[in-house]
Design brief:
The chain has 4 helices and no strands. The protein is elongated, with a radius of gyration of 16 Å. It has one domain (2-110). It is mainly alpha-helical and 112 residues long.
Length: 112
């Protein structure tokens, strides 16, 4: 029973972090399209860079996923987060593509 509670807490925290990074990414998309190169855009780039470093250090796994593995034997991609399984499975691919587009737009807007 205690393991279930800990896993639920991890899933809630992981989902909140995921939502936070959605706000970060979609602000970056808005700012890059609008040519709004304010401090918030660069803070967002810094947050994404920090996330990338953390994922790199953990061999492409979120630290919360690694912790959650101690409390679940599930093989589902969404065992550690409240997302549909397909989204949890392709999350990195989807957001890497979006970030690539944001970087290209930022570069294009900055060189106008």
């Amino acid at each position: 029973m205690q393991n279930e509670r800990i896993l639920i807490l991890i899933k809630v925290i992981h989902t909140v972090v995921w939502l936070f990074f959605n706000v970060v990414i979609f602000y970056m998309l808005y700012a890059s399209i609008a040519g709004k190169f304010d401090k918030w855009l660069w803070i967002c780039y810094g947050l994404i860079l920090l996330e990338g470093i953390i994922l790199f250090i953990n061999r492409s796994f979120c630290p919360l996923t690694l912790i959650a593995r101690n409390y679940s034997n599930s093989t589902k991609d969404n065992f550690d987060i409240y997302l549909p399984n397909w989204l949890a499975k392709y999350n990195k691919l989807i957001y890497t593509a979006i970030l690539t587009i944001i970087i290209v737009i930022t570069i294009c807007q900055a060189t106008k």
